[in-house]
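Tutorial, part two.
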Amino acid sequence: MRPGNWQPQIELSALEQSIVKRIKRAKLFTFLRQCRHQLFNEEFQEELSKLYADSAKGHPPVPPAQLALATILQAYTGASDAEAIEALSMDRRWQLVLDCIDCENAPFSQATLVRFRTALIIHGLDLVQAQPENTQHPQVRSAIDSARLIEAQDVEVDTNGEVKLLQGVAKERRISIEDEEMRHGRKSKSQRFDGYKRHVLRDLDNGLVRAVGITRANIPEASVTDTISNDLKYQKVNLVELHIDRAYLSSSLVQNRTQELTVYCKAWQVRNGLRFTKTAFILDWDNQTICCPNQVTLPFSVGGKVQFPKNICATCPVRERCTNSKTGRSVSIHPDEPLFRELKQRQLTPVGRAKLRERVAVEHSLSHIGHWQGDQARYVGSR
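Running the prediction step on this input gives:
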């Protein structure tokens, strides 16, 4: 059975006017109440009614205009289906828009809302939901566009017209309706988090936090150093020592450092099982050559790979301790190999290890900020 057109009252009642006066920030509720008869005119409601079979059997369905308004409010507030149903029975702003003020129960169930959204997708009407001429209101447009984006990244319609969840996680997946910059992030292979990364630059001499930064959770930590450098320029501060986490080794502060700046960072561990590691090979930076444990010397280029001849490796007396490859041992020379070697040598000394421990104060600052601020930022988005 197809529903009839929804014809709510156009003029605001005295009760509705009092509710509107108390809405200070979420003005979309007021806009939808005042313009719902224009957004969902008779022509558009008739198009939405085609979602339902033309049959005399069954109970009259809930007007699709009401369900469409609830869908818009979901996108605007970030409410789930269950939260939307709860809001309809407890939040007068929702009741104002859907014409059910002071109702004891929501005008429809959660299952009805889910079926309506599924029907919109199957019939392609989710693409025209915002096309009436008065939906140029920026909040309406933003809410619907956000809902479509989130729907597209998580849902697909197969050849049979069935709506299914996409397998895997979309690249740059948006995880919040209200905050378009929030992303999934990883602390490690097993530890995940959502939202943003917090960065601080602490002056180890006086304990002041001189600069802070916020980046999306899926962006490399090193990307924040450009903004931090700009903050330091205004303070007219020159860096002499930089105590950092390994994630910042590719940052502009390290890559563009001067001779006066010393970098302190825990070096990457070099492993190769029971065989020779890269550190067993002697690098001559003046002559750009590498010498293996068997005293075979070859030229190298920074950022390239050195392949030792397979015929030499095949007869090498220390082959079993070096490689089992049929093509011979290979060694990659990282573009930052000199820095890595420098960090490795520095942490082998007592003075170098003591310097590395100074960075504990930075971790304490991050911990204190997280304790007082909690998991929620003071504003939406990164600044």
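DSSP finds 14 helices and twelve strands in the chain. In part three we will examine how such features are distributed along the chain.
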